[in-house]
Write a structure and sequence with these properties.
Elements lengths: L39 H28 L42 H4 L11 E5 L10 H9 L3 E5 L17 H13 L7 E6 L2 H11 L4 E7 L10 H6 L6 H6 E4 L10 E4 L4 H5 L5 H8 L5 E2 L1 H4 L13 E6 L8 H10 L4 E4 L7 H4 L1 H13 L4
Parallel strand pairs: 1-2, 1-3, 3-4, 4-8, 8-9
Antiparallel strand pairs: 5-6, 6-7
Helix pairs in contact: 1-9, 3-13, 4-5
Length: about 375
Amino acid sequence: MGNLCTCFSHKEVKKKTSKRLSNPPPVAGSSNRWTRIRSSKKEKLEDSIIQEQAIAAAILFQHHQQNGTLPFDRSASLRYPVPGLKKQSLPRSSSSRARSLTDPLLQPHQLVNQDLKIDGLETNHFVLVHGGGFGAWCWYKTIALLEEGGFKVNAIDLTGSGIHSFDTNSITSLSQYVKPLTDFVEKLGQGEKVILVGHDFGGACISYVMELFPFKVAKAVYIAAAMLTSGQSTLDMFSQQAESNDLMRQAQVFLYANGRDHPPTAIDLDKSLLRELLFNQSPAKDAALASVSMRPIPFAPVLEKLSLSDVNYGSVRRFYIEAPEDNAIPISVQESMINSNPPERVFRLKGSDHSPFFSKPQALHKLLIEITKIPST
């Protein structure tokens, strides 16, 4: 992810609180605050309650996932349902307050899937690949919207991510990190194709798979992601912008599982800076979910240079979705990658931070649907 991509330095950087954007997004479920004036004390109390509830729900959800008491069959990660347990639907809000337009899952699905026809598409199967530190959990809104539209969706937990149990510090190569994805794509049926969607460092991961299995990938979508050229590593690309991203350098915490006389084994993020860095336009409840779900990012895969050919990687149709309010991978870096390795088309999610699946899920969904309909030229 963006945090993986600044230059490695042993220099200590003092942490400081960066200024928030002057107009932060409304908290999901609190649209009433735009229709009447509330005291600042009451607003702070409500925000505090919402965040506490979100964190509690996230912890409970993780507990269910890890213990197999809540099957979640929308992901291809390592999850094992309890035999004989009936499939449960995800809980829905029972709040009587006016629901916020910032949370599309609370709106009628007809608003985003009306008149949607999937017949005749080259494929209706999406494979979602998270960024560094994230997991399959981050796609929960996108999964719901796509499935409501009749699409088949799999979200993958890469090695040492999400609920994949492997120790992040022990990952020594990109191939090892991406193995759950390569295994999944390799096992696709004869003639079956998918649309790969990569976010953040997941962009480098889908490029790696496109080189291996170009005939199994109909299209590739990069969302504020590392779209590299052959011979580049993720670190190479983003180190060019290292000096201009002070917030990223503040947030990085290098982990040395093999001792400080050896290279770092992983990178963690300062929890106090997550909201400003990754979720500056996202609902508070999603930022809270991420704060208890994110894991360290393995360092070795970030250093590895990709080997991409025109025959394989170059044969797959690529599309890029920009996030202009991204503080982790600034828009200047996104545009630099696009200019160096032009995709077929570029889209822009106005107002999106680094995590559009949280900040602009409905708009992201519409773009994904639009991309499925783009015919071959």
